[in-house]
Write the structure tokens for this entry.
Amino acid sequence: MVEMVSRPYERAFEKHALANPDVLCISADLTSSCEIDKFRDNHPDQFLSMGMAEQNMMSFCGGLGLAGYRPFIHTFGVFTYRRPYDQLMASIAYPRRKVRIMGFLPGITTPGGMTHQAIEDISVMRSMPNMTILETGDATEVESICEVADSIDGPVYCRVLRGSMPRLFDTPIVLGQMRELSLGSDVLIVTAGITTEEALRATAALEKAGVSVRHLHLNTIKPCNEQAILDHINSVKGGVITLENHVTEGGIGSLVAEVMADNGVGKKLKRLGLKDTYAHGGSRAYLMRYYGLDALALTQGVEDLLGQELNITEQDLSEARVDAVHSLAKAEGL
Amino acid sequence: MRNEKTTDDIALGIRRRVFEHAMRNNGGYLSQACSAAEQLAWLYNEELNLGAPTLPMIPKPFEGVPHADNPDYHTGAGYNGPFEPEYDRLFIAPAHYALVAYATLIETGRMAAEGLEMFNKDGSSVEMIGAEHSPGMEVHNGTLGIGLSTAAGLAWARKRRGEAGRVWVYMSDGEVQEGQTWEAIQCCAHHRIDNVKAIMDVNKQQCDGAMDSVMEVGDIKTKMENFGAVVVEVDAHNISDMREAAKTKHEGKPLIILANSNPFHAMPILEERFPRLHYVRFKSEEERARMNLSIAEALGVDPIDYAH
Ligand SMILES: Cc1ncc(C[n+]2csc(CCOP(=O)(O)OP(=O)(O)O)c2C)c(N)n1
């Protein structure tokens, strides 16, 4: 059984902020939804309410950065770059302000539908010069995200998980270092965020079906250690498959494609994720199945990649966790 | 299409439905039913000129998002009747009021009661945050502050085409924190768009609590007037107030009705949860049971048997 951890961000942020007086806690009217409500109540001097006004907040944080503060912006990821893209670019990314953007509810982890689902954030941030991108995939990574993000000399966008989540790893994020979760020789699976747990569910079934899996988990998406990815690609016979909680354009699938093309690697690549589509509202488990982002989609992707039937069914995959949309553990509706 | 029921009856029916739903699901957008029921009931039952619904009473499941490969895609606007030049259009700008809006459709005979049972169910079109394919919705508004601008554009275009129908927007006061709201008013005034009308639920609440504690917005009426709107303040729970306000002349300017509402109107026990009313999730079975008894009594219904 994996250990489940409740609200790791809440504790990790408080610890980090209290040790670093130049860290400011910024909120955009989603304070409890981003697990900083206790921080607001206990440390009002370090907390700044910006209201529901994201454009102003972005440039305002640029101003805070100018004075040497390191604002941590808390809201849903989607609200940090869609409306205030211009402000993000001009006030934060260009001048390399040390603004730490904590984007909650990445991809389809929210039931809020299109307007709440950050499905192209990585693509946007990857194409933004000076921006660093981190993504968390378990409780340990969430526990280390504040410290790692705050070590960056410039702005950083983080995909942060909230609420109850599994502990998959026992070591913190090391900036720029991917996790090598298995080192087989047939296919290379590359995942990030919540899709890593899906791949872990699939690995045993794939191995049992005779596929030797090499699996990488990316927590630092930009900058990316291209050489390490290339070495792993060169270590498998059968090709590469990526699975992301994001559209297949511009995210980690594209990242791997670029590494392969840049280096003339003549192997097959299969990119799984949202296929040129918006998503809609629903539970995470439903959306992952509907849009082909789960363990089963991955095993089918591996079949396609290898051109061979593996006959893996639902029963062969390790048990999935199901989050109740209305569970008491959640802070708010959204 | 007019309903047999009075607008007050419809408002009560909306609250009863949202209450029942929140009880069964251990929480929900309950406070929005308190503040908004009369406004939405009045719009649908009296003010809006809408045709009969064109979509099935029992909503169809989710049928995909707009895409070149999805030629049959349509929005949920058909619950408000067909698009005809003489008919009005309505946008629910704060899409999280969807539960209350769906209850209004049921109470006014535009959707079957089964529709509410599909709320937030996987694969359903009756989404928690109203999507443009959800019943009664025509565009996505879950990103707050875009509704009035869309309405202004449609209103300008309808005027140019000589259509008599007006464009109504249901707004929330949190939206005035977004700069876009002000850009929209300024644009309406500049282009003399006076076939756009808005009613805003001024409940003084937002996600984090009382708006004054999150980001003060000051005197909304004066600010809006300065940006070029005609603004009337009403008591959001007084239907004749709203009727009168809607008659206000506003030539060359948009009309915005500020409906001052009580976020626990008709469910006084909710005041216990002040100032965290945005999404009421019961904190314990004890609280749930207590609220069940109290609200049921206040609304004149039996307590909800939510265990079954
Ligand atoms: C652009 C944008 N930022 C943030 C949010 C998240 N959010 C949803 S509702 C809301 C504020 C709610 O205030 P109000 O609109 O007045 O609604 P009420 O509290 O009356 O339900 C926020 C911040 C959003 N939906 N859109």
About this structure: Chain B is about 35% helix and 10% strand. Chain B touches chain A through 42 residues (CB under 8 Å).
